[in-house]
Amino acid sequence: MRSVRMTSVAVLVLLSLAAAGCGKKQQPVLAPAPPPVAATPPGVAVPRPPAPPQRVEESLPIPQEPLPEDSIANRSLDDLNRNSPFQPVYFPLDSADLDDQGRMVASANAAILKRYPAWVLTLEGHCDERGTAEYNLALGERRAVAVKTYLVSLGIPQDRLRTVSYGKEFPFDPGHDEPAWSKNRRAHFVITAK
Question: CB of 157 within 8 A of CB of 91?
Answer without folding.
Answer: no
